[in-house]
Write a structure and sequence with these properties.
The chain is mainly alpha-helical. The chain has 4 helices and 2 strands. It is about 70% helix and about 5% strand.
């Protein structure tokens, strides 16, 4: 049984930032595509944006990943810090690890992993 006692805020921040940037890129591309479609339909609310769909789309594709990366990094660091405080007082998450089937280390590694004690 293992216990997760602490999460590095820096590592959590990096992972959260990258995940946020990827999500922001997908969201920005989707927003740009929807904007192109809606302005192209010629519906009255969107006709006022005719000619602005490209700048708005590019802004979405460029700015959403930056915004979501900063937001993801900050929230991940905050969550890691909060986990560390709670785990300090209540104990960390307990979990059990086992190697996956077919993923056992080679025989040489098994010998290195268990050194013999000399008396």
């Amino acid at each position: 049984m293992f216990e997760l006692r602490r999460i590095s805020k820096g590592a959590a921040s990096r992972v959260g930032g990258v995940m946020g940037a990827v999500f922001g890129l997908v969201y920005g591309i989707t927003t740009a595509a929807v904007m192109q479609i809606l302005v192209g339909t010629g519906m009255p609310p969107f006709t006022a944006l005719r000619g602005m769909e490209a700048p708005i789309g590019w802004a979405a594709v460029l700015l959403f990943p930056l915004f979501f990366a900063v937001l993801g990094a900050g929230l991940a660091a905050l969550t890691a810090g909060l986990y560390n405080v709670i785990a300090f007082y209540t104990g960390g998450l307990r979990f059990e690890l086992r190697p996956a089937k077919g993923n056992e280390p080679p025989l040489k590694m098994q010998k290195l992993a268990k050194p013999k004690l000399r008396r």
